[in-house]
Structure formats: structure tokens, C-alpha cells
Amino acid sequence: MLLLGDSASAAYSARLHNAAFEAAGLPARFEARRVRPHELKATVDALRQDGELMGASITAPFGTAIIPFLDGLGPEARACGSVTTLSYRAGALVGWNTDGTAFLQALEDAEIDADGRDVVIVGAGAAARSIASVLRDSAQRVWIAAQDLGQAERLCQDLQIAAGGAVAMDALPLILRKATLVINATPVGGDGHSLVFPVQWLRANQVVIDLLYNPPLTPLVRSARGRGARAINGLTMLLHQGLASFEIWTGSPAPETAMRAALERAAVLGPAT
Q: Whole-model pTM above 0.85?
């Protein structure tokens, strides 16, 4: 099993999936492979010829870029226009998206209800697409804030987001005054100290979700809690992504207990333990 992309948190995914394979008694290993953008098509073609491959995980920056090179898409991937997981069957590579359902399951685990909320998603990449896709019908409004306003506008157009829409980052302070659910779908904060926006823009009555999980206490989560807001990281979402990927790859229920324990251990002791 492979992870294709440039994820600084690949070690967490490896711990998660290798714990699953061991618990299930499968002779498989998960490893990260850093691929440059110009190598993507050749890499996908090589995967298609690999007789031992069960599938792969896809991360930034390839969530949308990989789609033209695949043989088909699952319904969630088709709906949001991004891929997180590949299955390999009968010589065909099919792209699936596990982000949206994993995000909703993480909300359920944390007893957070997104229905009727005004939501701000910071970022307009593949993860933002997935989450906007599953929130657009239940949230009251969904705003997409991004440095690249054109990218945010394309996301909203593709997903037909009518209530809310794309906003530039310099308009974010005004939009945050209306939002009760704030989601960071950017890599900002992975260095352990950067913030995607000034913490003074947050309020105590907001729920903040940082999709990052390395470090487990991200700068945004720590700062939001300091403002009195409720804040969680993306580790539970990663767990549910892993559960879904295992079932896609194997056709069998995932060993959730072993996978959850592996992530909890990695969060406390570090992913290399």
C-alpha cells in the first residue's frame, strides 16, 4: 500500500494502516512515496501494472490532479471532484473520496452538529472540496476563504454553493463574525507555530476544527481554546478515513480497535513509536 503526495504527517497514516494490516493478519505494508507533480501520470501508470498492489492513499497536492489518470470514480469522489483513496481491481484504478464521510463521523464522535450553522472553510484545495460537498445541504451558509480567490470561486461553482460563497482572506474577519463553525483545511500550522489567521478574530461561541493533527495540539486548536472556543484537531477524521480505506481495499470490516489504539499511541508518544 502506498501514500502518494507530500504529507508531513505520513507517519501517522503508516502507523494507522500497518496496525490494521497486522490486526487483520494481512501480508501488506503501508509506505509513503513522495511524487513530484510531473511524475504523477507515470506513477499512476506504474501502479496499474503492479500485480501486488491493493490500493493507495492520495494526499496533497494530488487530490484533484490525479483524476484524469484514473479509470473511474466512486460516487463521493465524482460529487466533490477530489480523491483520497485508490482501489485496484482487475487492472483498473478507481478513485474514492473518504474525507467527507470521515469528517461527518468525526463531528458525530465529538457531538458537534453542523446542521443550520454558518460555516467558514479556510482553504480551497481537495480537503475543502470534500467537506464543502457534505456540508452544503445541511449548513445554513458555507463560505470558502482562500488566498487564491479564483480557486475558491471555482470550488463554489463546481459544488453549486449558493448560500455563502467565495471570499478573499482580507474579508475573513467580517465573515468570521457570522460563523459558528470554522474549519482550517490548509497546511498552515503544521510547523507548530503558524496561524492561518489571527486568533483575535475568533469568539468563544464558535467551534473550530483544524484538519491538521501533527502536532496533535495545533497552534489553531491551542489558540482557539485560549479564546474560550471549542476546538478539535483532525485525528479522529484520519481514523475514519483509515477505516473507510481499509474496507475499500479489502472488502472486509476494518479492525477499528487496533487502528484507534495505534493513533492514540502516536498522538501521545509520537508517530515513530
A: yes
